[in-house]
Amino acid sequence: MGRSPCCEKMGLKRGPWTAEEDMTLVAHIEQHGHSNWRALPNQAGLLRCGKSCRLRWINYLRPDIKRGNFTSEEEGAIIQLHAMLGNRWSTIAARLPGRTDNEIKNVWHTHLKKRLQSSSKPSGQAAPKRKAKKPAMAAASTADGSASVPVSPEQPISSSATDYSMASSLENTDSFTSEEFQIEDSFWSETLAMTVDNSGSPMDAGVTLGAQDSASPSSSNDEVDFWVRLFMQAGEVQSLSHI
DNA sequence: AACCTCGACAACCGCAGTCGT
DNA sequence: TACGACTGCGGTTGTCGAGGT
């Protein structure tokens, strides 16, 4: 619709950020905040577009970023949240304090999606050709190789609970081996139960791993809570229908 | 030792939603 | 109400390093 490009391409630097640029950006944000990303590069003296600055800050420079490998709890949470929410990475990230949407998205595409796909295939077909670099990231091989997640990882979230099998996905939380997702039973029963129990005060309810992320907007929580409750109700309906 | 392949992750791009005028 | 500017999000790509051949 004739939108102008997000930034002027002329003279703006691209590619990996240098340590000096990082320092400049951090120093500027600590002093002046980031109320206006578009104007920030000029004010800070950076030859980057505002979008690039924002991304760098959010994904890498923010002080509350948690670096390092994802724990099995976090991976399990991502899988479950993805089953509920689809590719709503920012919403999922809001439930994982210290993790960014980009990071979660990367982990999903590089590890978790393949893990789910491999676990849904017959045994013997999922063996990775290469040894995993990081032990924690070793491809999961379920005991019988028959574990599967009924909801396709690719399936986008639907506005209708009836065409999204939340019930199945929740009922099959033990699709993952206990060694990898120890939190499954306790974590999800607790968090989801809390969501339902707090249905009267949606602002307080939520599926958050660890401490409540104070930075996550309440509207986001409301949205997630809405879907959680909706799916829970749909799950109850489907559970009954299976009887 | 050199080359190849693949995994991991940072960064970019374009679209959609929101807000101000 | 319409329009433009800006921000945020999700998909995709590029780059680098490690492991395999």
Automatic annotation (TrEMBL):
SUPFAM superfamilies cross-referenced by the UniProt entry: Homeodomain-like
Domain HTH myb-type: 9-61, 62-116
Keywords per UniProt: DNA-binding, Nucleus, Repeat, Transcription, Transcription regulation
Low complexity composition-biased segments: 135-148
Main location class: nucleus
Domain Myb-like, residue spans: 9-61, 62-112
Entry-linked InterPro entries: Homeodomain-like_sf, Myb_dom, Myb_TF_plants, SANT/Myb
An example Gene Ontology CC term for this record: nucleus
Location(s) in or outside the cell: Nucleus
CDD domains tied to this protein: SANT
Domain of life: Eukaryota
GO molecular function, one term: DNA binding
Ranges where the record places region Disordered: 114-165
Gene3D superfamilies reported for this sequence: Homeodomain-like (1.10.10.60)
PROSITE patterns: HTH_MYB, MYB_LIKE
PANTHER family on file: MYB FAMILY TRANSCRIPTION FACTOR, TRANSCRIPTION FACTOR MYB30
Full protein name: Predicted protein
